[in-house]
Amino acid sequence: MSDSSKGLRGIEAGSTAICTVGAEGNSLHYRGYSIEELAAQATFEEVAYLLLYGELPDSTQLKAYIERLQQLRGLPAALRTVLEKIPADTHPMDVLRTGCSMLGTLEPEEDFAQQDFVADRLLAAFPSMLAYWHRFVTSGQRIDVETDDESLAGHLLHTLTGARPGEDHRRCMDVSLILYAEHEFNASTFTCRVCAATLSDMYSCITGGIGTLRGPLHGGANEEAMALIERFDTAEQARTEVAAMLQRKEKIMGFGHAVYKVRDPRNAIIRGWSKQLSADADNAHLYAVSEAIENLMKEEKGLFANLDFYSASAYHFMGIPTALFTPLFVCSRVTGWAAHIKEQRGDNKLIRPGAAYTGPDHRPYVPINNR
Ligand code: COA
Fold this sequence. Notes:
With 371 residues, the protein is mostly helical. The chain has 16 helices and three strands. Helices cover 57% and strands 2% of the residues.
């Protein structure tokens, strides 16, 4: 295997009609619609419908879909009990991984004809699981997760914080969910497809996706980016210390991308939101710190910020604890994962690549007493 194809870089490992990063790898379209237009004009519910059902909904379909998701927000008592038993110092990604798996025991997918129900159920229930556990372990409250918030973004912020969000925070979350929803054959989606290709159930596929997204080279980068920017009080300090990190050949989380080589088209959108929210935030300097790091990375390494970098400050300005950043990614990406699972099932072939063997040639077995 050549070094250039390590990590399957540049190899088409299947086909998809859901999303493309373009031939040049510098744009993003969901089923033909550009991320810029979707982020500016669509709601997350429209995008979820588009990804899962193939077309944008008309107004009747959208209204029905919003109501359907609202009705699916509740958590069974057995799942609430399990969530309450998860230790307070657990990473919330492990909470969602466990919650997904547990829901799969209570409402199993017994037939692929149920796949749309399971996808919508998980989309509606992940915010509830996250908020129920978070509020229980931080304040001992057993919250009602069946709110009347129309949007998933509003529901998420409302249940996580206990207060209905202002419109700028709600819409920023909505846009963030749109940006995180889908990204072709990324590591977690590929995990879901590998699992789906064995004809396993949707809960197993998505549990695997959550485990894959958790790592700092993938979804976990937004938490690492936050840990970095929080260390600095000024833009100057950030420049000096990040330059020193680069000298030490340290990786700066939230920069670079396995597919994009020139820019991440989602960055400009979330950066704009971060800047807008910083105007009313207590620690607005984190935006200036982020900009300083972005400029330095461009000058020193020719590297651009990916979606995770400014998502960190945008989420922080909304008052979201850092450990919840990657779980929010799950609440969105479940749409892309489920769309890919459905697509894989629609034209399935077991995914089983070959391996370039690097071990010893044949050698005779040596009985234990002769070793
Ligand atoms: N900080 C510093 N250097 C970086 C870097 C970063 N974030 N990302 C890449 N580089 C450098 C590497 O050190 C390497 O340099 P070298 O050739 O001198 O060794 C070169 O750029 C290529 O990096 P590599 O990790 O091999 O590229 P990749 O295509 O496999 O990696 C990522 C893609 C995303 C894994 C990588 O950019 C990364 O680890 N980024 C940080 C994590 C992150 O933000 N993940 C979220 C992605 S949306």
